[in-house]
Write a structure and sequence with these properties.
131 residues; mainly alpha; two-stranded antiparallel sheet; 3% strand; flat
Length: 131
Amino acid sequence: MPNLGAGEWLIILLVIVILFGSAKLPTLARSLGKSMRILKAETKGLHGDDDDEGRSAQQSQTTQAGAGAKGPQDAKGAQTPQSAQAKELQDRAARLRAEASRLDKEASKGDDGTTLNGVPLSDAERARRNS
């Protein structure tokens, strides 16, 4: 690639300013920066996915070797952080299900025919539902 001197760079910058205008240059620079950050994050994510696949293959081999165990455990029999995290997620899901059930019961308690999903019915709608 040929070496570009100061004069060539000035000409290139002048052409860019003429083509895009000085008002659009900051916007173009911002969008280029965002694109670079997204590209960098995606490439890191791809490298992380490769590492995760290797770890999951190791964990499945370990789990298959200790198939009689109740969950993943270390040499001392304590639960590994992955199983503790899974247990925590299961507990959270159970709490959310219980909360949803409670809210459904609460919503059905107050259903006296004057509201539909908490929105008051008009007189005409109420009369049509009652007949």
